[in-house]
Automatic annotation (TrEMBL):
Keywords: Signal. This is DUF4412 domain-containing protein. Residues 270-301 are annotated as: Disordered. Residues 1-26 form the signal peptide. It comes from the Bacteria. Residues 290-301 have a biased composition (Basic and acidic residues).
Length: 301
């Protein structure tokens, strides 16, 4: 064997060894997803665009786009939700600010010509809400599998059996939820469990090692929840039959795009919003309603 052939053979051997060692040390899909999820929890500041698309009989495409800008510390959040149904478009804005152990919420009431309202919620501590994301959380809890799906995306399968377990209602009651609310949560989660495991497509930015996009087909889950709500309603049998057909032929999907918070983002509720806001309530929150009543009484005094 001449020198040239020996050199070529040696180079090929080195290249093969390099490729083999690189493959050995390459992160698995599960490791890539785990690192990205941990990075998102460690630094949740960013802009999140939630897009929900529904195809419904008679109505065609119904969409909801919610752009959420969030700052971890001090905790502030700004939201713009745009709903489109047929030729109608409705936009609602809101702001959330943490002040010690009090959360201030300013929002446009879509049922009152988008009049600004405000509500407050007492927190358990003055620690920034973002701290709840920190810590050694097991981001793989409930994850059955993670497989590569091409172009830096991964199919993540979540275990539906973990959605609801015996004893959850008691835990919710301890957290202050009413019995009716806990019963409602349980029925919805149990209905979701029956649809089976949920597969979510997650895209990871290889440079930042953060999640950049999440795609979720939710048709089976939507139908299960809608059927549960319909079963509990007081609608007549005839109307239920119509609604069941409506549910059967409706489809829904959701995407979440994650990006850095724009440098010029201002998440503070404007002065004119705070001055115009009248006492309101946080939907589903009784303590907020009482707090707002107290605030209204104080203003009246």
């Amino acid at each position: 064997m001449n020198l040239r052939m020996r050199v070529k053979k040696a180079l090929c051997t080195v290249a093969a060894l390099a490729m083999a060692s690189g493959a050995a040390f390459a992160a698995s899909p599960s490791q890539v997803y785990e690192e990205a999820a941990r990075n998102m929890m460690a630094e949740p500041t960013g802009e999140y665009v939630l897009q929900v698309n529904m195809e419904m009989p008679f109505l065609g495409n119904v969409s909801l786009t919610n752009t959420i800008d969030m700052q971890a510390e001090p905790f502030q959040m700004k939201s713009e939700a745009v709903a489109k149904v047929l030729n109608n478009t409705k936009t609602v804005h809101s702001y959330v600010e943490q002040d010690g152990d009090v959360l201030h919420i300013y929002y446009e009431d879509s049922k009152a010509d988008n009049a600004w309202k405000k509500a407050t919620r007492k927190l358990k501590s003055a620690d920034p809400i973002s701290k709840r994301f920190h810590g050694d959380h097991n981001v793989l809890a409930g994850v059955k599998s993670v497989t590569a799906a091409g172009k830096n995306s991964y199919d993540v399968v979540y275990d539906a059996s973990r959605l609801y377990r015996e004893g959850d209602k008691e835990k919710w009651a301890a957290d202050g939820y009413k019995k009716e609310q806990a019963e409602g949560f349980a029925k919805v989660l149990q209905a979701l469990q029956k649809t089976g495991d949920v597969t979510v497509n997650v895209t990871v930015d290889p440079k930042t090692k953060r999640i950049s996009k999440v795609t979720m087909p939710l048709t089976p889950q939507m139908r299960a929840v809608a059927q549960e709500v319909l079963a509990e309603s007081d609608a007549s049998d005839a109307n239920k039959a119509i609604m069941e057909q409506f549910i059967k032929y409706s489809e829904i999907s959701m995407t979440i795009d994650c990006a850095p918070l724009p440098k010029d983002a201002d998440l503070t509720a404007p002065k004119e919003v705070k001055e115009a806001a009248v006492p309101g309530t946080i939907p589903g929150s009784d303590d907020a309603a009482e707090s707002d009543k107290d605030g209204a009484a104080a203003e009246a005094a």
